[in-house]
Design brief:
The structure holds two protein chains of two kinds. Chain A is α/β, with parallel strands linked by helices. Chain A has helices at 41-49, 71-81, 97-107, 114-123, 139-151, 169-186; strands spanning 3-12, 15-25, 31-34, 56-61, 64-65, 82-85, 157-161, 189-194, 205-208. In chain A, strands 6-7-8-3-9 form a five-stranded parallel beta sheet, sandwiched between helices. In chain A, a hairpin with a 2-residue loop joins strand 1 (3-12) and strand 2 (15-25). The model of chain A has no long low-confidence stretch (mean pLDDT 90). Mean pLDDT of chain B is 88; it is low at 212-224. Chain B is elongated and about 105 Å long. By secondary structure, chain B is α+β, with helices and mostly antiparallel strands. The chains are: A alpha/beta, B alpha+beta. The A-B interface holds A 12, 42-43, 46, 49, 51-52, 71-72, 75-76, 78-80, 84, 86-88, 90, 92-95, 99, 103-104, 106-109, 149, 161 and B 2, 5-6, 9-10, 13-14, 16-17, 313-314, 316-327, 406-408, 410-411, 413.
């Protein structure tokens, strides 16, 4: 079991926006969380990643009770074990593609490994871009760099928050395929939160959240 | 350690991303630091130099006029003298019980801008100057050339030259004493004092040059100090006096000032007065430089705050990627400090370069040696203040970065 949640309520400023009695994801069982905006999808991902703490309930990720960790350990745990892909494929504009990936390694406390970076960029077909600045990338290229960064530390869990919302149909399908490919390649479980119905058919496991 | 090795490259990348703002802040900071450092270096060297030149001289007795002018002209050899005093009067004062040593000086001639000073060997001893090449003077019109004067004029032992009447540099238009040339007896060793840029000779040389009697009169019998015993109507410019007891300072100057035509001036008091006169300019310059540094600090603060607002998405991303609050806070602090370090390095280069430049320029006009190739303790205060300032400028932005709530940032992205 990669994600195991029971009796969860979560929200901001004492106001609950999400209540989940049970939410389990088996290891390797790629899952889609579908729901309209405001249903608490992002909050769920934040809770799983340890970015936010639950108001009540139990959250276990890969056997670790995230909320029980200290703030520093939570940051470390997230950097080590969880890859993140966000709706806006935000890259650090002050760093090159390579620099962005190296930063992800450093922040996770993993030894900087240029061979690993080159291998991932190669696998995603963008090895020629390693010295490129983010502003010079096309949207498709930026998408690949963001995915490369999500998997660079060999995460057990990849969390993707609206990874396709800003993409047209062609790029949308390509992005989802890349995510599946990379998840398979690194043995990671994919957990995608979206309101985008275009990718629903790609998942065997779908959990719908109500508004 | 790990947090720093992560935050440092990121902080430098952020500074590189905004080269103009970075350059402006570093430049502003370094100009402030440079101004203060150049000022401190120059002042400390001028002060040190003046103290060395005035060491062992408690009082100067000369013709009435400005006491500052008297001290400047006779102790530091930079201003024109206030006038002459009668040798007989000087001898009487020098013989008083309160006086341990009285060294007479006779000024008025120069050679290519270097002053020719008639005096006694005690003047050499005052500055610890010894004869390096050649020998001491034995007869009138023989001179000893200070180390720097020798180097600049190329005078060597045995060489003859004609002095010019007047102290002005060049002295080309002044009448030359061509009929009575000086002869170089020896070159003095460098002392780092005023004597290095002087040409020193016996009092007799000066008198011989300037009295009509010298033309045909037979040489007189030597008296005390090897000078002609007869004081006649001979004159000197000033008397450098060292007291026998510190108590002499109380009443001795008053007794001198009571004599008509004479005045006594204390080098220590005149130096203090000079620096008090310069004080306003120095304070204004220091204030100006401090304002520049504070502006730089403010610029860094505003720059970091703006960058923080523009990079909120980065901040969220860093946290998502596993950065702790401490690491993002450190990234902001390091940006400020890096600007401080760059400003300090550039500022020290500018300050020392500026002092060296001032030294080169002043050396040509006033023949005073200043250099930027030296360190003084007060520079560390400036360095500390500058780094403290940049740290302070980064403190609030860093705290903001530390406090930022990531879920809300993510909600906005």
């Amino acid at each position: 079991m990669i994600v195991e949640i029971t009796g969860l309520t979560a929200g901001y400023g004492g106001k609950a926006v999400l209540a989940l009695d049970r939410f389990n994801v088996e290891t390797g069982q790629h899952t889609l969380v579908l729901g309209p905006s405001g249903c608490g999808k992002t909050t769920l991902l934040n809770i799983i990643a340890g970015i936010a703490l639950p108001m009540s309930g139990e959250v276990c990720v890969n056997g670790t009770r995230v909320a029980a960790l200290s703030a520093g350990d939570r940051d470390q745990f997230r950097g080590r074990h969880i890859g993140f892909v966000m709706q806006r494929l935000h890259l650090i504009s002050a760093l090159t593609v390579e620099g962005n990936l190296r930063l992800a390694q450093r922040l996770a406390g993993v030894r900087a490994d240029d061979a690993r970076i080159r291998a991932i960029l190669g696998a995603l077909g963008i090895s020629h871009l390693h010295r490129t600045w983010p502003r010079q990338l096309s949207q498709g290229e930026a998408q690949r760099v963001a995915i490369a960064r999500a998997v660079v530390n060999r995460p057990v869990l990849i969390l993707a928050d609206e990874p396709t919302a800003a993409l047209d149909d062609g790029n949308c399908q390509a992005a989802i395929e890349l995510l599946f490919d990379q998840a398979r390649e690194h043995g990671a479980t994919l957990l995608v939160a979206t309101h985008d119905p275009r990718i629903k058919s790609r998942f065997a496991h779908v959990r719908e959240l109500a508004a | 350690m790990n947090a720093i090795s992560t935050a440092l490259p990121l902080a430098l990348a952020y500074l590189r991303e905004r080269p103009l703002a970075t350059l402006l802040n570093v430049l502003l900071l370094s100009l402030g630091i440079g101004t203060i450092v150049a000022l401190l270096l120059t002042l400390s060297q001028v002060e040190e130099r003046m103290e060395r030149d005035a060491a062992g001289i408690d009082l100067v007795v000369g013709a009435k006029g400005s006491p500052l002018q008297l001290v400047l002209s006779t102790v530091f050899q930079v201003d024109i003298p206030t006038g002459n005093i009668a040798l007989a009067e000087a001898n009487r004062i020098g013989a008083e019980a309160a006086v341990r040593q009285a060294i007479p000086l006779a000024l008025g001639d120069s050679y290519r801008g270097f002053r020719i000073v008639g005096t006694r060997p005690a003047y050499l001893a005052l500055y610890g100057a010894t004869v390096g090449a050649g020998r001491a003077w034995a007869t009138p019109m023989e001179v000893l050339v200070g180390a720097e004067a020798a180097a600049r004029t190329g005078l060597t032992p045995g060489q003859r030259f004609a002095g010019s009447h007047g102290l002005a540099e060049g002295g080309g238009s002044d009448p030359k004493h061509a009929s009575q040339p000086f002869e170089v007896a020896g070159i003095l060793t460098p002392t780092g004092t005023v004597i290095d840029r002087l040409i020193v000779t016996s009092l007799d040389s000066i008198w011989q040059l300037h009295t009509d009697a010298a033309r045909e009169a037979p040489p007189k019998a030597p008296g005390v100090n090897g000078e002609t015993a007869d004081t006649g109507d001979k004159e000197i410019t000033a008397l450098l006096i060292r007291y026998a007891t510190p108590m002499a300072a109380v009443s001795f100057p008053r007794r001198v000032n009571a004599v008509s035509g004479l005045q006594a001036a204390s080098p220590a008091m005149e130096i203090t007065r000079l620096f008090a006169l310069l004080g306003f300019g120095v304070t204004a310059l220091k204030l100006f430089a401090t304002i520049m540094m504070v502006c730089a600090g403010l610029g860094i603060f505003i720059g970091l705050m703006n960058a923080l607002n523009d990079r909120r998405a980065d901040l969220a991303l860093l946290r998502v990627l596993g950065a702790s609050r401490g690491t993002v806070c450190l990234t902001v602090l390091i940006q400020g400090l890096a600007l401080g370090v760059a400003g300090v390095i550039l500022g020290l280069v500018l300050g020392h370069g500026g002092a060296e430049w001032i030294g080169q320029t002043v050396a040509q006009v006033h023949r005073v040696h200043l250099t930027g190739m030296t360190w003084i303790k007060s520079e560390f205060t400036v360095i500390g203040a500058a780094l403290g300032l940049t740290l302070l400028a980064g403190l609030f932005p860093a705290w903001r970065a530390y406090r930022e709530a990531v879920p809300e940032l993510l909600g906005r992205t």
